[in-house]
Known about the structure:
Elements: H1 2-12, H2 17-24, H3 28-36, H4 43-53, H5 57-61, E1 80-82, E2 85-95, E3 98-107, E4 112-115, E5 121-128, E6 131-135, E7 138-142, E8 147-151, E9 156-160, E10 165-174
Antiparallel strand pairs: 1-2, 2-3, 3-10, 4-9, 5-8, 5-10, 6-7, 6-9
Amino acid sequence: MLAVNLKRARAQRGLSISELSRRSKIGKATLSQLESGTGNPTIETVFSLSRVLEVPISDLLDAQPPAGLRIVRAQEVEPLSGQGIDLRPLQRIESGQAVFEVYDQQVRAGERRDSLGHVGVEHTIVQAGRLGVSVEGHEVELGPGDYVGFDATQPHSYTALGATVRSVLLLQYRADQRLHAEAPHAPPGENSPLGE
């Protein structure tokens, strides 16, 4: 679904592959592979595209909200992996004018994950380990049960201070940041939310 959603978002923004490449700092060949469905993106690639196209990550990955009881087994969800981090998308929640994405986040032992920023508000709750968080020069250390929230458009980083850190990542967006908010006449099924 990334191929379809990426093409749609790029077209809605009026961007050529060359311009998207320039803004995202992702090679044109890589973007062409992603749009043809043959690429395998890293988490950095997906976050960069989300930032440049100003859409929620799940609008690029395409998730469908479940009806009734939903169980997500760890082994059934392929993680998005990147520099020092693995994210498993678990759920997309739409409520009023807000959209939330829930992820199981692991920062690998001794690793650091840097982000230039992306749309939304980021919320993290540490489950295990010690997590260093830096946002615009402000640094905090979190332990199990601790929470941090911040404007995700600001450059930020996560560092596992010792062992691997397990946490819950919640990304919050305004409904008008959704990809389909700009394409109300898309055919049915084309704007379904994360995984079908």
